[in-house]
Amino acid sequence: MSDTEITPEIENAFEAPKADLSTPSTDNPILGMKRFSAWGVFGLSIVTFGLYLIYWMFTRVNNVNRISKVAKASIIAVYIYLGASIISNVVLYGFMLVNVSLALSLISLISFYVAIYSLRRALTEMINQGTENKVKIGPIKTFFFNVLYIQYKINEAIDNQSE
Questions:
Q1: pTM, whole model, 2 decimals?
Q2: Which of 8, 81, 82, 133 would be 111's cystine partner, CB 3.0–4.6 Å?
Q3: Cα 43 to the chain's mean position, in Å?
């Protein structure tokens, strides 16, 4: 073996690594969503005093509506939730109208659950679209752990379908 021979394993050590950067296949549309820790969602929600939950809802609903060909989540409910929450706080702290603020808070709460359950329905159909292993996103866990549970199920579906 001479000094000029190159081993077949290392042809060019300075070449950029090759990676498959193609878009996810249509068989697994959930792979088009980004994986993010449910603990990260919980921590950011606390640090930002709940503002991250609004951002999370808005981005996940838009991603599902962009990726899914089967079902769509309600972006209108997210807008109603956002608007009613802001107006409720302005009315309560700016004008001290407690009854109006309570009514707006109730509208905000109802629109939040409409948005989270429409996202749940769309995600369930999107996750089950290209797989034999059917995933069920529980309605009771969605009610109590809403955003954290949905993010957990998104991560679980991404992990299961990327194998």
A1: 0.77
A2: 81
A3: 15
Asked if 59 and 67 count as a contact pair (C-beta separation under 8 A), the reply is no
How far apart (Å, rounded) are the C-alpha atoms in residues 118 and 35?
Answer: 20
Angle CA(148)–CA(142)–CA(73) in degrees, nearest 5?
90
The amino acid occupying position 129 is Q
pLDDT in tens, 82-100: 999 888 888 878 777 888 8
Q: Rounded to whole angstroms, how far apart are CA atoms 24 and 44?
A: 28
Residue 36, amino acid: F
Instruction: State the CB neighbour count (10 A cutoff) for residue 70.
Output: 12
The rounded distance, in Å, linking the Cα atoms of 119 and 114 is 9
Query: What's CA 153's distance to the chain center, in Å?
Result: 9
Residue range 127-139, pLDDT digits in tens:
888 677 778 899 9
Centre a 10 Å sphere on the Cβ of residue 86 and count the other Cβ atoms it contains: 13
Of 69, 57, 70, the closest CA to residue 114 belongs to 57
* Burial readout 123-160 (b: 16 or more C-beta within 10 A, e: otherwise): bbbbbbbeeeeebebeeeebeeebbbbbbbbbbbbbee
Task: Give the separation between CA 138 and CA 120, rounded to whole angstroms.
Answer: 9
How buried is residue 120: exposed, middle or buried, by Cβ count under 10 Å (0-12/13-18/19+)? buried
